[in-house]
Specification:
By secondary structure, the protein is mainly alpha-helical. Helix content is 51%, strand content 0%. It has one domain: Transferase(Phosphotransferase) domain 1 (Transferase(Phosphotransferase), domain 1, Orthogonal Bundle), CATH 1.10.510.
């Protein structure tokens, strides 16, 4: 779900971190912070349910991470309950992340 953070925030996770520093950071269980909605660089607001799913996918313990089918199911459910939380694919086609 790191792509989720990248699409929503406009920058990859740990964008300001040197590549060789990432492994120690992630190994210690540190994860990116939720993007601040007040930041002018944020393209879309993170729905709390979507953010919680993203955090679950980053669990330090692999068995605690949801399987792909569960992620797909929760995304579909979220799209039904809160359409604004999951944006239409057309948005991603125009995203500066995918356009780069």
């Amino acid at each position: 779900m790191s792509f989720n953070l990248q699409i929503m925030s406009g920058a990859p996770p740990f964008a300001n971190t040197v590549d060789n520093a990432l492994f120690p950071i992630v190994s210690r269980g540190l994860r990116p912070l939720k993007p601040n909605d007040d930041d002018d660089n944020i393209q879309r607001t993170f729905d709390e349910s979507l953010w919680n799913l993203t955090v679950e996918c980053w669990s330090q313990t692999p068995k605690d991470r949801p399987i792909a089918a569960a992620v797909a199911s929760r995304l579909a459910e979220l799209r039904t309950k809160k359409p604004s939380a999951i944006h239409d694919v057309s948005y991603f086609r125009t995203s500066r992340i995918l356009a780069a």
